Amino acid sequence: MSRSGHATSAAGHGVHTMAVEALATRILKGTYREGDSLSVPEVMAELDVSQTVARAAIKALAAKGILGADTEHGTFVRPREDWNLLDTDVLRWKLAAGVSSDFFADVLELRRSIEPAAAALAAERRTEDDLAALDAALRAMAASTGDPVMLVRADASFHTAMLVASNNRFYAQLHRVIVPVLVQRDREVLAAAGALTPPHAAHAAVVDAVRSRDIDGAYMAMLELLDLSAREHP
Question: What is the three-class DSSP state of 213?
């Protein structure tokens, strides 16, 4: 294929991606509400794209559970409970559109059921590389005094490393769901309060238990960390 052919293909992919993002943003922010019908000509006009791109954008959002179709209504916005929040794109769009406190509460319940168990598995299965990643996150957290952006990144790195250290492929993948919500919560706390209170000692206690292969201790230390974070940053 010629260089121009590659450029055309890349440009087409870019237009498609932008159309999906734009349509998803309109739905997540309520321009199109649950049950609203969407026609291809309407999407073409709204996004100023071709029929091919409009159809592709609708198909992409249907695959993520946001749009549905039937003979009576055509293409329509599905109920929010049908949206696949475990899909990283859907979650990103949801966070960008704004979430309520009960959304964070739901994720905390998810985290309380997963992260202590992941820490317990990490205590049993961790490798030297896992410990190195956890230690690096702790060092970054300790060095983040006065730098809230660095603290948010260090906290995200810690929880990612702990899920990976479980050496369970499903827990490891859940950082794609847990960490973006954690980062968003930290940013909102920072915007509201102007600072974050990092429970560094509580993080270190989890790592100490993992290092010592204390399975029960790692479980309880992670549970305490999550509860402490929830109390300090409700």
Answer: coil
Given a cut of 50, whether residue 209 has pLDDT beyond it is yes
Work out the angle at residue 99's Cα, subtended by the Cα atoms of residues 88 and 234, and round it to the nearest 5 degrees: 110
The pair of structure tokens assigned to 227 is 């509860």
Q: How far apart are CA 42 and CA 49, in angstroms?
A: 10
Whether the model clears a pTM of 0.85, i.e. scores above it, the answer is no
Strand partners, 77: 67
Containing 54, the helix (H) or strand (E) segment is helix 51-63
Joined together, the tokens standing for residue 75 give: 């293409």
Give the residue among 11, 15, 88, 24 at the shortest CA–CA distance from 60.
Answer: 24
Kindly list the strands in the beta sheet with 74-77, ordered across the sheet, starting from the edge strand earlier in the chain: 37-38, 74-77, 67-70
Contacts of residue 50, defined as CB under 8 A and 6 or more positions apart, other chains included, come to 44
Amino acid at 143: A
